[in-house]
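Researcher: Sequence of Nitroreductase family deazaflavin-dependent oxidoreductase follows. Predict its structure.
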Amino acid sequence: MLFGKEHVKRYQETDGEVGHEWQGTVTLLLTTTGRRSGQPRTTPLIYQQEGDAYLVVASNGGADEPPLWYRNLEANPEVRVQVKGDKFTARARTATPEEKPALWKKMAAVWPQYDEYQKKTGRPIPVVVLERA
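Model: Prediction complete. C-alpha cells:
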C-alpha cells in the first residue's frame, strides 16, 4: 500500500503516474505551511473535483483531533496543490454548513469509510474546498 512519504515522493517524481490512482480512488498532493515550523508539509489526500475547485476531507481516520494538515491550513489557507502534473496555488476553506451535505455525499461516494470515520468521533469532520488562487 502506497501512502505517506513514499507516496508523495513517487507522485512528485512521476507527475502522478504513480500515486494518483490509489485503492480504487484518486489522490492529490496538498502542501501546507507548518503553523509552528513554517516548513512545507505535503500530504496525499483523496479528492473529488467540484467545478474548478477540489474537495478533500479532514477525517484523520475518525480521530477526535483534526489532521495536522488541516490545522496548518487554518493558520495559513494559502496552499499548493498537485493533481497529476498540474501544480498550482490554491486557497483552502472549510465548506459552509449549507454546502457540506452535498459535498460530503460526493466524497463518501468515492471513499465510504468517511461515514464510518464520522461515527467514530464527536467532532464534525470538515470538507475542505481548494480553490485556485
